[in-house]
Design goal:
Pfam families: Pkinase. It comes from Vigna unguiculata (Cowpea). One of its GO terms (biological process) is defense response to oomycetes. It is a single-pass type I membrane protein. This protein has a domain at 35-161: Transferase(Phosphotransferase) domain 1 (Transferase(Phosphotransferase), domain 1, Orthogonal Bundle). With 190 residues, it is mainly α. The N and C termini lie far apart (44 Å). The chain is 32% helix and 0% strand.
């Protein structure tokens, strides 16, 4: 989380209060803990944090810092309705991603190509398919100028679950990979 001066802060998401009430040193819960807006879409289906969900949250943080907007605030004046990820992806698709930069930043002090690189990196981290998100090693290489940001489609892909692994290619004989993904079916009685 960030405070009003963009200093990183750690939050407990209410878990510490649960432990204090019971006079325990640790606590296990089946509840999903996290802050809406930073949580990857698959978190609600798998019910736990993974390396990929952390990359997603980092991507949201990157977008938040560069754009100066919280992940879920409403800014009707610039069509930012619900999600910073959707808003920045829309700008990117229109070829106006640099228009998402925080107005408080001095335009003469920023380099558009660097800002675009960081925003595209943020979008790559927020890819709906967790298999297509970059590793944090790649993120660091991009931020250090040692690599280009991963390519992202101009239009935000739809979230699908289970996510297609990177080895899946459209047009290939899908019978070869049939059965590698297990669909979830819940059977309940009346």
């Amino acid at each position: 989380m960030l405070d009003s001066d963009y200093n990183a802060k750690l939050g407990d998401f209410g878990l510490a209060r649960t432990i204090q009430k019971r006079d325990e040193t640790h606590h296990s819960t089946k509840e999903i803990a996290g802050t809406p807006g930073y949580m990857a879409p698959e978190t609600f289906l798998i019910g736990r944090a993974t390396v990929e969900t952390d990359v997603y949250a980092f991507g949201v943080l990157v977008l938040e810092v560069v754009c100066g907007k919280r992940p879920g605030n409403v800014y009707a004046q610039d069509d930012y309705k619900n999600s910073i990820v959707y808003w920045v992806w829309d700008l990117y698709g229109k070829g106006k991603v640099v228009g998402g930069v925080d107005a408080r930043l001095k335009k003469e002090e920023i380099k558009e190509e660097e800002v675009e690189c960081v925003l595209v990196l943020g979008l790559a981290c927020c890819h709906p398919n967790p298999h297509k998100r970059p590793s944090m090693r790649t993120v660091l290489q991009v931020l250090n100028g040692e690599a280009s940001p991963p390519q992202v489609p101009k239009e935000r892909p739809a979230f699908m679950w289970p996510a297609m692994p990177p080895s899946f290619k459209e047009g290939e004989d899908s019978s070869l990979i049939q059965g590698t993904l297990t669909p979830f079916t819940e059977i309940t009685g009346r």
